[in-house]
Amino acid sequence: MIGFEQVNKHYGSFHVLKDINLHIETGEVVVVIGPSGSGKSTLLRCINRLEEISSGHLTVNGYQVHDNKLPLNHFRKHIGIVFQHFNLYPHMKVIDNITLAPIRVLGLPEHEAKRRGLAYLERVGILDKAEVYPAQLSGGQQQRVAIARGLAMNPAIMLFDEPTSALDPEMIGEVLDVMRSLAQEGMTMVIVSHEMGFAREVADRIVFMDQGQIVEQAVAADFFVQPKEERARVFLSRLL
Ligand code: ADP
Ligand code: MG
């Protein structure tokens, strides 16, 4: 589903991603961890071409992402992304936030988009909030709307960049619960997160990054019990 081969990326003279090789299968859940500034967000953003790679090959959902002729809108339709800050449209009701792209991009009739949108709101546990504005919701609820909005495009892949980092502690669980159920249903997911308990439980694989490199990739159980690389050991020991 996702294949990085010898991918490099520079921001000007700064070498942010170094020789990235990473292959993610359909239905796999990969959690990317590592220190701040290690390139996790950049890696994620390359997947839907919010950032361009400088060299190497990147294949996502059958597309060559670096191809000049990539039909970008068509390509992005199938990739949902959820950010730390929810980026909801403040002037639109929750349901309209969710139906906007399905109507405009997928061309769904309004009633069908609404029917599906309500189903996704139910799915994330906030059906009763359809007609309110984002500002009337808690952070955890807003993030669940953002997830429902991503799901409403019926994506092949969901990307999450620290989806719980901006939340009060008591709201983290409700967002992780939604992500956990998505993982169980077989969604292909790439998640940048500092929630190690969640990562250990939900990830098929952990990718540990440091200074623009993938330093270690391992099955979650192995990684947390016995990371192979010294840098990973140091990182984990600082969290405990
Ligand atoms: P992480 O998500 O792991 O914290 P990022 O991918 O956001 O790391 O950033 C990796 C490095 O690239 C950081 O040193 C950051 O300052 C730098 N960086 C990120 N975005 C840009 C940009 N648009 N221009 C220049 N440097 C950037
Ligand atoms: Mg980041």
Automatic annotation (TrEMBL):
Domain ABC transporter residue range list: 2-236
UniProt KW keywords: ATP-binding, Nucleotide-binding, Transport
Highest taxon listed in the record's lineage: Bacteria
CDD domains associated with the record: ABC_HisP_GlnQ
GO MF: ABC-type amino acid transporter activity; ATP binding; ATP hydrolysis activity
Annotated Pfam families: ABC_tran
PANTHER family with a match to the protein in the record: AMINO ACID IMPORT ATP-BINDING PROTEIN, PHOSPHONATES IMPORT ATP-BINDING PROTEIN PHNC
Family: Belongs to the ABC transporter superfamily.
Protein name: Amino acid ABC transporter ATP-binding protein
Protein source organism: Paenibacillus agilis
